[in-house]
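Exercise 7. Given the components listed, write out the predicted structure of the assembled complex. Treat all entries as one system.
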Amino acid sequence: MGKYFEITKIYMKTQLVWRADVLFNMIFTIAKVLFAFLLWGMVFNHKELVGGFTFHGMLSYYIVSSFLSQLEMSEGVSNEIHDRIRNGTFSKYMVIPVGIEGYFMAMELGIVLFYIAFDFIAAAVWIFVFRIHFVFAASGWVVACAVLMTMLGMIFMVQLNFFLGLLTLKYQGIGTFLMIKNHLVALITGSIIPLTLFPEIIVNIMRLLPFYYVTYLPAMLLTGKCKADAIAGLIAITLWCLIMQAVIMKVQNKYFRKYDGVGI
Amino acid sequence: MNDVIIHTSNLAKRYQRYRKREGIRNSIASLWKRDYEEKIAVDHIDLTVKKGELIGLIGPNGAGKTTLIKMLTGIIAPTEGSIDVMGYYPNDMKNEFKKQYAVVMGQKSQLFFELTVNDTLRLFKEIYEIPEKDFQKNKQYFVELFGVRDLMDVQVRTLSLGERMKMELIVSLIHNPKILFLDEPTIGLDAVASKQIRKFLMEINEKNGTTIILTSHYMEDIKALCERSIVINHGVKIYDGATDKLFDRFQKNKRITVTFDDPTEDMALQTENVSILENEAHKKIYQVPKQLVKELLAELMKYEPKDIVVEEEEIGVVVERIYREGGKFHG
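Answer.
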């Protein structure tokens, strides 16, 4: 485990080098909250409730979900694998005695841990500035379920992006596909608008997909909603993680054998 | 036989590459129909390497040197043949195997450019599970050997190419690998840095008994370091034997570049078998048989040159000559 801990540490150190990035990330968090405040302020102008949310409930949801979605940076994993396979430098990961998937998990953890603190500060400041009556889950076990679900959701997203990155070994160039995937994921994880605003049939379909449990359900649980779905959600995302891991284990070695590098 | 650390038999690597005719119409047509051709990168190579050897792998661009190294390190899988490196099939990519070798590819870095070398070394200590005492001892040894103590705490991206290559070597050797694969370690380096790298490799080989397999375009690297050389062309091994014999037999000429302060037009040289490769007023380049270098230099000195540089023949020329004259030659 020591090697993975060290990988996490080195990526945390890497994040600390670029001070401007930290600053802009905080500004981005602030801008998103400001945008949500203005947008939902207009929507709630003549209404008390939208999709079962009050104005402050909606803002609370938005702040939590944007905080969580901002921590979800796993697209960097597929992009890194894709780019390195394309330019022939993926061998960097193949020649060191460490599990490649584990390396990317540890790398992601290092990046996320670093941003948690800064994004949390930015979100908290804006809750105070806009005097948002933050709606938070009252029950400790619901919060615990939400935190655990968030962690499993992030693991699933790293697994998914690792798998998609490996597809480069088969299809050579999947940059456009990855871009489309990123936009779709932003929509179906509910980080743009709550999924409850979609027709019920769509929401029911979403429940079958893992993305429902990555940002949306944890955000709903943390803002005191959908408590009844907590345990079922945990089971669902755990199953998705296991399925994804089985897929990775099945294709990983087969796909690595396709690696030819560049300049043979 | 116990001393054998690498053994390959009939090792081959073929791959397919996409072929497209020029023009936008052909680019569009290639969306649904593509033509592929098969390329043989390594063509049935038999190779045996003993512990502690320092071997030079020579060949022009595209000869198959890097592909061979990639197969020996498990980065790519062979298409055909058998391969055994320290008792492992490399492409199984077992961690126990990876802990026993190191690979340095001139233009592919293991360093974290944003961080310091000490940070990367700390990571590698954990990855290779090196005990703290051994880690400190190895680190001190390599840092002193290269004289890079002052550079250990600066950002890697601020280092020069030569300094970075030294750091790559330190990082790759920190776990005391049994085999070190080096792909063009001196590419782009100046003469001083190249010389330092060569000295360093020699010491690692002699003191630690590390087996080193080195590819290089530079004759100086191969001549200074490797007792044994393997020449590859078009994926085929065309020479495997003593480096001295190889160069004695096939490196027939030297290249002499002479520059002048004043324009020098007609030079009626008496030395035989001299061919002129470049002829400008202030600069001339000659190719001359090795044994006539002294004679030509003496003659050129009469024209009061500003500078004279004597160089080895390019590696590609030598390989071509082996291919043309020798077929498969074993020294």
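Discussion: Residues 140-171 of chain A form the longest helix (32 residues). The mean pLDDT of chain A is 85.
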